[in-house]
Structure formats: C-alpha cells, structure tokens
From TrEMBL:
Keyword Transmembrane included in the entry's annotation: no
CDD domains per the UniProt record, alphabetical: HTH_ARSR (cd00090)
GO MF terms held by the record: DNA binding
Gene3D superfamilies cross-referenced by the UniProt entry: Winged helix-like DNA-binding domain superfamily/Winged helix DNA-binding domain
Alphabetical list of SUPFAM superfamilies matching this protein: Winged helix' DNA-binding domain
UniProtKB keywords: DNA-binding, Transcription, Transcription regulation
Protein name: HxlR family transcriptional regulator
UniProt xrefs under PROSITE patterns: HTH_HXLR
Organism: Microbacterium saperdae
Amino acid sequence: MPLRSDWSAEFCPVRRSLDVLGDPWVLLIIRDVLHGHGRFDALRDNLQISEPVLSRRLAAMVEAGLLMRVDYLDGARTRQGYAATEAAADLLPILQQLAVWGERHTPMPEGGAHMAMVHETCGQETTDGGVCSSCGERLTPEQMTWVKPWKNIRDRLQPAGTLR
C-alpha cells in the first residue's frame, strides 16, 4: 500500500511501517473498524470517503493483514464487512496517542469538546495511549470507550475479529 515508493524491503522499521500505514485513510478506517463500524456503508458515511477510494483502501488493508472480511446478516441476506486483525488492534496505542496529541497541540474547532478515553476496567479516563494513566494496566480495544461529546455518544471499542 505504498504512497510514494515501495519501502517494504527497507531495514528501517519506521519506513516499513509507513509503507503500510502512511496513508491517512488507513488509520481512520482502523479507528472506525475498532469501534465496530466495519460495514462498507457505515465506513463510507462516517468517513465521508468516496466508494472507489474506500474499496481500494479496504482491499489493500486486507492484503496487508490489517483487516479481515467477516460475514454478517442484513435481513435474510449475508453480506461481508470488515473486522480488525490483531495487527490492527495493536495500533490502538498509536490511535489513542494521536488523539491525546491532537487534544494538546491542535486548536479545538468552534463547538467542539474534549474527547475522553475511558478505561472500562477501572472506570477512569486515561491520558496515555498504551497503558491506563490511572491504574497502569495495558489498554486493549475491548476495555476502551471513547466519549465523543460532539456526537453525544459513548463509543465502545470492539475486540479484534468482531463486527457490531
């Protein structure tokens, strides 16, 4: 899924990581899939992304091992959606740290509000991406809820391999 060059054979792990994760859509798609929104229509609508761009990104992310296709029932019809793999779930600390960084270093738009990341195990907000800043436990998707006041929702994350 290279943006510029193929860095997949580079010795530098940062370059190899960016070869897979360097497209901003990739992390946004993983964010939504970890929240259980892995249906194509939900991804398209939540991300406001064109269908051709989303289709290409999803295919590349499945090929890269970040997502897996999963069946779900839509009425009487079986359809396919996307769920996070362990590789995608391992990106949770990075996504959460990006949220912390964005809260600290980017201006809040008019009408916005603080997004809290709540560690459900201890019930406290964490300000760290990988380990709960309150209890010190390692954070996993199934233990996390993101409180998004601008949407008036508490969005519980999903374990790898699941689709809501």
